[in-house]
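Q: Make up one entry.
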Amino acid sequence: MIETNSIVVNKPHKPTKLHRRIKKEYKEATNQEIWEGVRDNFIFGFLGAILVVFIATRTDIAVLIGYIVYYFFMGRIVNRPKYVTELGKLIVFPIPSALGAFVGYKLSITIIDLIQTYL
C-alpha cells in the first residue's frame, strides 16, 4: 500500500504464475471451445438444481421429466474430454455451473407451475 496525504492507494499487484497460465490458456483456446464449455456447464448446473427443487416439492411429473432430461444431458457431460487446463478447472467448469445452479433454483418453481398447468 502507498499512503499519500492520508489517502491509501493499493499498489497494483504483480500477476501470479497461475494468472499468467490462465491467460495463456485462454489465448490458446478457441472461442467455440470456451463457449461450448460454458454452455454445457451452465446447463449441467441448471438441471441439477431444478431436480433438487422438484424432489423437495414432491412434484412427481416434474421429477420424472427432470430425470429424463438430466440423464440425456449426462451422456454429453460424461463423454466429453476431461478438463486438464487451469482455465477449464478454475473458470470454465465451476463458474457457469454455479450460475446455472442458481438460475435453476430460482426458476424451478415457475417451471413446476408450467408443467402442472400444461400436463
Remarks:
- The beta strands are 2-4, 7-9.
